[in-house]
Every structure is written in C-alpha cells, then in structure tokens.
Amino acid sequence: MNTLILRTVAPVITALMLLFSVFVLLRGHNEPGGGFIGGLIAASALAIFGIAHGPGAVQRAIRFHPMAIAGAGLALAAVSGLVSIAAGVPFMSGLWIYPDILGAEVPLSTVMSFDIGVYLVVVGSVTAIALALETEPDGGAGEGEGGG
Amino acid sequence: MAAAAPAWTFIALFLPFLAAILAPFLVSRLGDRAAWIVALAPALSFLHFCGFLSEISAGEVATGGYAWAPSLNLSFSWFIDGLSLTFALLITGIGTLIVIYSGGYLKGHRHLGRFLSFILLFMGAMLGLVVSDSFLMLFVYWELTSIASFLLIGFDHEREAARRAALQALVVTGAGGLSLLAGLVFLWNVTGVTQLSLLVHLGDALRMSPFYLPALFLVLGGAFTKSAQFPFHFWLPNAMEAPTPVSAYLHSATMVKAGVYLLMRLNPVLGGTPAWEILLPFFGGVTLVAGALIGIRQTDLKLMLAYTTMASLGLLTMLTGFGSPHAIEAAVLYLVAHSLFKGALFMVAGAVDHGTGTRELPLLGGLRRAMPITFVAAFLAACSMGGLPLFAGFLAKEEIYAALATGNPRAVFFTAAALVGNALMFAIALAVGLKPFVGKGNQTPLTPHEAPVALWLGPVILAALGLVFGIFSPLLHAYLTSPMASAVIDEPTVITIGTMPHLGLPFGLSLLTVTLGILVYRELDRARALAAQMLEGLGPGPDRWFDQFVSGLVRFSARLVRIIQPGRLEIYITATFIAVAATLLVPLFLFDELPAMPSGPAGALVQEIAFFVIAALGIVTVLRAADRLTAIVSLGIQGFAVAVIFLLFGAPDLSFTQFMVETLSVVILTLVMTRLRLSVTDHRPPGQILLDGTIAIACGLGFALMLLKAVGTPFDPFMTDFFNTYSKAIAHGANVVNVIIVDFRGTDTLGEIAVVMVTGLAVLALIKLRVGRRAS
C-alpha cells in the first residue's frame, strides 16, 4: 500500500478531508452533517495519512496524543452541558448568543460547542485505535509510540 | 434565636463536611494544633443544636428542608424531636472532644489531616442520619457512616489486620444497609409516605399489613448489623484495629448506636407486636450476656471495652423491644449515660497506652501517681459505668431494674440476663478504670507519664458530665431524656428517677449487681479463665464463619468466571449472536407474530434495484473470497451499496455516517488482520462453517423479519411531528437528526461519547497488552 502515488497525494487528500470535516461539523445543525460524521471523516483522513506516512508522522502532525484529544472533547461536551446550570436552566439546555462579527450575525451556542466535543471524541478515539494498530508490534515502522 | 432559621440548621448540618475538606490544609500549615481550630466546627454545630433545647423540651418539633427531586417526591428535609436532638448533641459534643483528642493522640502522625477529615466526614454523616426526615436521606447517610467507618478502621492501612477489619465491617454493615433499604421500600409501599415524621402516625396500618413481618425482618437486618447484635457482632471487636479516638467515637458513643436509634425511631411504627417483643429482647439479651462474658475474658483494655459496648448495645436493644414505657425510659437513660462513660473510658485507654506504651491489663498497675488526672477521669467514668449512686449510670440501672422486675416469668429471664450482664460490666469497669491505677507499679514499655491536655480534656469532661447529670437529674430529664423518651414512645413522658436510692426491689437488684461485680473483680483472673473455658466449649464463632464465607465466595466466583469468561473471543461472539438470533426469532414464532410477506419489488426504481444487486453481489463475494483481504473489501462494497440506498430513500445523515463507518471498518479490519498476523486465507473445518453459517443466517433472518414486522405496523407520526414542529422553533436547527443528537437527547449523546472514549481506551490497553506479551 505504501506506494509513491499514495505518499504524494495523501497529504493533500488529508488536508482537504480535514477541512471538509470541519465544514460538515459546522453545517450540521441545519444541513446534513454534525459532529459524529465530521469526526469520522477526520479520522479517515488521519488514517489515510497514517497508511501513507506511518503513525509517527500522524502523531507529530496532530501534536497531542489522540486520547488526549478525545478527553478534551468529552470535557468540552460535559462543560457545554453544565453552562446551562449557571444560567439557572436544566442541565444540557441549549443557550444561544448572536454576536456581531465583522458585520455578520454569527449564531453561537452551547449546542455547537457540544457538537465540537462529539467531533473531538470521535476523531480522537478512532485515530488512537487506528494509530495503535498501524504501529508495528516491534515498534519498527512507527518512529516513537504512535497510538499507544 | 438561631433555632428559628432553617438556613442556620442547614449550615450546622454541613459544617462538619466543610471542616473535613479544610482539615488537611490546616494540619499541613499548623501541625497538630490545627485540631483545636478544626474542633470549632462541631463545637459551633453543638451550640446551634443547644438552641433547640427549650423548644424541644416544651414538646415541640423543629422541621425544615429543601426540595431535592420534587418529581420523585424526595426532599432534603430534617425533623428534630427529642430523640434526634439528644443524638445530635451527643454527636457534636463528643465529636468536639474527639477532634481535640485526635490532635493529641496522633500528634506528629503524617496523616493526621486525613484522619481528622475522615472523623469529620463521619460526624457529618451521623448528624445527617439522626435528623433525617426523608427515608432516602436516612439511607444515604446510613451508608455514608459505614463508608466513613471503613476508612477509619482501615486508617492504618499498612497492617493486614486493619485492612481485614475494615473490609469486614464494611461487608457486614453494608449488607445490613441494603437490607434496611429494602425494608424502607416496604414501609414506603405499604404506607405511601417517604417521611419518618408522617410514618409515625401510620403504625396501625402497617402492623395490620401482610408485609409487616418482611418489613420488620429487613429493618432489623439493618439495625442489628449496625449495632453489632449477635450473631453479627463480630465486626465490632475487630474494628478496634482503628486508632483509639475512632473506637471511642464511632464504635461506642455514636455509630453503633445508629441501629438503636433506628429501632427507637420506628418503635411507634413497628413496635408493640409479638414479633417485635420477642425478637428484640431475645437477640438483645443474648448479645448482652455474650458480650459481657467475652469481655471478661480479654486482657487488652480496648478489647474489654469493645465487648462491653457490644453488651451495652444488646441491653439497649433488649430494653427497646421489651414493650413497656418504663423500659424505653431505661433505654434512653442508659444510652445517654453509656455514651458519656464509654467514650471517656475509651479515651482513657488511649491515654494509658500513650503514657505507658501498653494496653495489656496484667502489665499495668500503680499509675495513679504518674497519671493523676487520667485516673480521676477513669475512676469517675467507671463509677458511672458500674451504676454507683450519684452517677448517671445509676439512674439508668435503677430504671432498668424497675422496668424489668415486674414479676412475670418472661421478665424474670430478662432480669437475670440484665443482672449477669451488669455485674460483669461493673467488674470490667473497675478493671479498666481502677486496676491500672492502683497497686504496685509495673515495668511498662515507656516510663509512665501524664497525658497532655488534649488527651485528658475529653475524658475529664465526659466523666464529669456523668456525675453532673447524676446529681442534677431533673435538669437531665427536662432537657434531654424526657423529650427523647416522649419521641420514642410517641406520648408525652416525664422521667422522674432521681439519684437518691429508694428502698425496693430495683435497689436490691442494684446492690446484688454491685456485690457480684466486686466479687468478679477480686477474682478477675479466675473469672477470665472460667469465661475462656466456657467460650472454647462453644467452638469457633461467627468471626471464623465470616472468613469461611468470604473464601467460599471467592472460590465460587473464580469458578464461575472460568465458565462464563473463558477468554476466547470466538466463544463470546458465538454466544452473543446466538442470543441476538434467539431474541429476534423466538418471540416472532412463539406468539405467531410473523409478518406478511412483501409482494415483490413492484414500483421500485431502476437505481434502487441496481444498488440492491450490488449489495447482494458484495455478500456473495465475501462468501466466495479466497483470501481475507478480498472478503473485507467486498464487505465494504456491500456497506457502500446500503449507504447509497439510504441516500436514495432520503436519509442523508444516516447515509453519510454509513459511508464513513464502512470506510473506517475496512481500514481497521485490514489493520487488525495485518497487525495480528492472521493467515491470508480463512481455514475453517466444515462443521465450524456449518455452525457459523447457521448463526449468521438466523441473525439475518431475524433482523429481516423484525424489520418487515416493524414496517408493517401503522406508523405513529407523533414523534416525527413533534421534532419537525419544535426543531427549528425551540432548538434553532433545521437538521432534525442533528438537533435530536445534540439538543433534544444531548444527555444520551454525552453518555455515548463517553462510551466511545472508554472503548478507545480499552482497545488501546488490549493492543498494548499484546505488545507486552510479544516482547517478553
């Protein structure tokens, strides 16, 4: 699988897919998409990059351990739910604000940050598994500890 | 007065918890002096509860609380009457002294902060327990006291004996807690109320109910384990592994009385029946005599006291269930007196240990010169324990004999039990409170020296109170014991017993007790040998049974695990899918609910049929594939075709997800295959293929029939309409699927992503494990 063609196009594909995954994530509230799907797309993108360049390269590219990303996502989702308690409404109630950014009204909400949390959990967990599987048992192919 | 404001009571109830959080920080800053500051918390609570005294003694009750889960009819509510108040004052008052004592006892111990934290945690739990009105609140606090007790017994966790004792106490009282929970659920279902204050008036309905006996047994299961009644008594002496302040506080003055508290609280509701008046006195009487006999056999001061505590708890249970208002009054008086003198004597035992380095009675003697203050406290407490005139213990003992000695045959039996128990306890009181201090000085590990103020303050105050309450008995009755007895009997009651001896049968029995006690004390060594002989004749006790029970349980579960968790993935997967097929198919056939067969693909569009064919071809390829990689990719083709069909039927979100899941499945399955170094082709014997094939077809058939059935039933658009109506209106989102996931059912999603993450961690651990095994 580790062909020259794949190695050449993989970074481009990965970049495009990651961009697309964010797009899918953000449009999710009104159009088909959302955190789950976006997370899966991003995880596929990283898996492709891993197949082409090895788990070490993926690990370096994403900087953080994928499980840490998943943990951050879970924390973000939980905190998004808790914000509503501070506002005196039941846990997980969606809160919305509409700030004016550069002349455009941008709807922001705890629902959105919750969905971003879902995205991070999915991308982190799936990538962690994929990287761990890609790392050769003897540690040969992956420089350093890829997923594990 | 502060008593009027519920907010202050709430603060008083939570002060111990707050102090529990702060204690470690204070100790790390100030060392053992921090105990004096930490003790302010229970002291303030104590003062707050003192504010209730006049109100409660006038026959009123104080209530308050906050809604907790109104939809479940649960509230955080308290109910303070004479019974609660006396307990609350004992808990906070003795608690204050215990915290100060702990600072001296564990001076310089590196975990003093943690210790104080646990003690205060317990204090908060116990305080909550005795003022709880709601059943659930009572249960939560009940369990919290068990947990705090576990932490404190196992405080010295580097010793195996401490760990075993902690675990044993937790298992016994925890099992009792579950029994209590079941009992409370019975009470709730029979009467329909969840509050003790309302329950009290429903006693008649409950006693008539066919569920009375089960409810009684379950509640007694909780009370008897907590209050160490025979045959559940064995955890209490073992709990003496804990540092002495814990023994003084939890395992004599307060926690072990939680069971007695419960019995007293429920006396108006469950009491007055033959079952109540047989079970309680019987088990109480046995516990009383057994505890006193085993106690006389010991030589360790703490163990002697521990067994007399067990005996005292037996006495309290016996009196509570005896069935006369007199007996209740006696129980109330004895409970108060016991908390004071036993708390003091335990602290004395600790001070003696601190001053000499040993608690072994035969090694101790002549300490009155070296430890005069401790001696005074010990002697006063022992006099109260022995029930000598002028002391609170005397009031209790007179009342006990007055209540028991009524002349009928049943009473004779219990009077005899009380006489034997009291006489032996008097002997032990002298052995602990007098013997170490008189006679010749012995060689002890440390040169005897007086305890520091933190160690003698508690015993002196408690022992002195025993004398003050005895002399000023009208004061004691007016503010503490009469309101408490009124609450237990559920009728206004006035206790009048004074400290001046009245000639009569009770006084005669008291004299007999004292005489017998002194005789036993003078012949202590012979009595000890005699008790040991008697007990050895009875064979191994429940302590051994507990060990056998636990090791049997461990062996049983090991065997069970080997059967249901053999560790082979094939077996798990086979079992799972057989269960899936059975769940789907059996009901359909059993209840004759098979769906009508569809009438062929009439009206299907060309592209729909085309993708259906692709999916089918994918499956055929999977089955015919020569090597695993082809099979994996073909499975992906089938999945993609299904995803396109979803898209054609207007489910873009589902379709999207299906695409991604299929892609990742192919990638991960391939990685797993290469990673696990599976052989390229799949060799299975024909029998295995037949079995696996059958299971697969059964599952497929089951899902297909199930879906057909589901599609065949009329569609209820209620949910669809609901989400279509409200998705945009209140959740500001046009994509209903996403709005459901992140908003309407966001809490579900939160749980799901937590599962995703835990699964990821588990997979990582599995892969790492394999790496480790390969490497080694």
TrEMBL record, chain A:
Pfam families, per the entry: MnhB
Keyword ATP-binding applies: no
Top-rank taxon: Bacteria
Localization terms from the record: Cell membrane
InterPro entries assigned: CPA3_antiporter_subunitB (IPR050622), MnhB (IPR007182)
Keyword terms, alphabetized: Cell membrane, Membrane, Transmembrane, Transmembrane helix
tRNA processing is among the record's keywords: no
Membrane topology: Multi-pass membrane protein
Membrane spanning stretches: 5-26, 32-52, 73-96, 116-133
Alphabetical list of PANTHER family matching this protein: NA(+)/H(+) ANTIPORTER SUBUNIT B, NA(+)_H(+) ANTIPORTER SUBUNIT B
Protein name as catalogued: Multicomponent Na+:H+ antiporter subunit B
Originating organism: Aliirhizobium cellulosilyticum
UniProtKB/TrEMBL annotation, chain B:
Topology class, membrane: Multi-pass membrane protein
A Gene Ontology biological process term: monoatomic ion transport
GO cellular component: plasma membrane
Keywords: Antiport, Cell membrane, Ion transport, Membrane, Transmembrane, Transmembrane helix, Transport
Broad class of where this protein is predominantly found: membrane
Domain NADH-Ubiquinone oxidoreductase (complex I) chain 5 N-terminal, residue spans: 71-115
MrpA C-terminal/MbhD domain sequence ranges: 614-677
Molecular functions (GO terms): antiporter activity
Subcellular location: Cell membrane; Membrane
Domain NADH:quinone oxidoreductase/Mrp antiporter transmembrane: 132-410
Pfam family membership, one: MbhE
Entry keyword Kinase: no
Residues annotated as transmembrane: 6-27, 34-56, 76-100, 112-130, 136-155, 167-191, 211-236, 248-266, 278-296, 303-324, 330-352, 373-396, 411-432, 453-480, 500-521, 569-590, 602-622, 629-650, 656-678, 690-711, 753-771
Residues covered by the MrpA C-terminal/MbhE domain: 692-768
InterPro entries on file: CPA3_Na-H_Antiporter_A, MrpA_C/MbhD, MrpA_C/MbhE, ND/Mrp_TM, Proton_antipo_N
Stored NCBIfam families: PRK12647.1
Name of the molecule in the record: Multicomponent Na+:H+ antiporter subunit A
Naturally occurring in which organism (per UniProt): Aliirhizobium cellulosilyticum
Lineage, top ranks: Bacteria, Pseudomonadati, Pseudomonadota, Alphaproteobacteria, Hyphomicrobiales
